[in-house]
Specification:
Radius of gyration: 16 Å
Mean pLDDT: 95
Oligomer: single chain
Helix content: under 10%
Order of helices and strands: EHEEEEEEEEEHEEE
Number of domains: 1
Largest sheet: 13 strands, mixed
Number of strands: 13
Distance between the termini: 23 Å
CATH architecture: Sandwich
Structural class: mainly beta
Strand content: 35-45%
Number of helices: 2
CATH class: Mainly Beta
Shape: globular
Length: 221
Amino acid sequence: MSSYSSRLVLNSVFSTRDFLPDGDLKKAIWRRASHVQFDHDWAGKRRYPQAETSIASCWTREQVYFAFSCKYSSLNLFKSGNLDKDQWGLWERDVVEAFLNPEPQRVNHYYEFEVAPNNLWIDLEINLNQKPFNDPNWNSGFLHRTHIGKSLWTCEMRIPVASLAGPGYELRPHAEWRGNFFRADGAGDNTERRLLAWSPTLTLKPNFHVPTRFGIIRFVT
């Protein structure tokens, strides 16, 4: 679509079975998947090799999965939180984020998923045509799990596609969504933290909510 300016592609590979996320990326499906790496900031200018991030995806007809592998030097976390409910403001600490749009013709309507290294989470429905634009009451029912190693933390997400595209929706080969992936790393305010984007938003100030810069998520066999 002409409204999108990014041509980056993440191929999501088909999985013959569903599985529960556990944060372990040594599974056969992740060895078979295509991994993309990024270490540049949201503007695509400054690089942070110490925070290099890798993403992969797989899918079944009813679920879509994402795997994040994140280098880190130290962790900036909320020390307390409830794993049974959304953690508002999670983006103010270390986190990975997936912004997904299963209906690319609705450019300003998409869904946001965030998971912190200690497995705190939030999911949001986003509609930039209204105020407020983020609805924290929306609940996707997504599952997620993280694992923290010495210099690497990992995250797996499992998201029901029906929560994004409606009851009865099933993924099919060759389907294409739009989406972007982000990482916040480090302490301080947004002038000090490392704010990374897979598809750079090209804004002067940090801003992840630029849907016209979403790349392509292509579902392959």
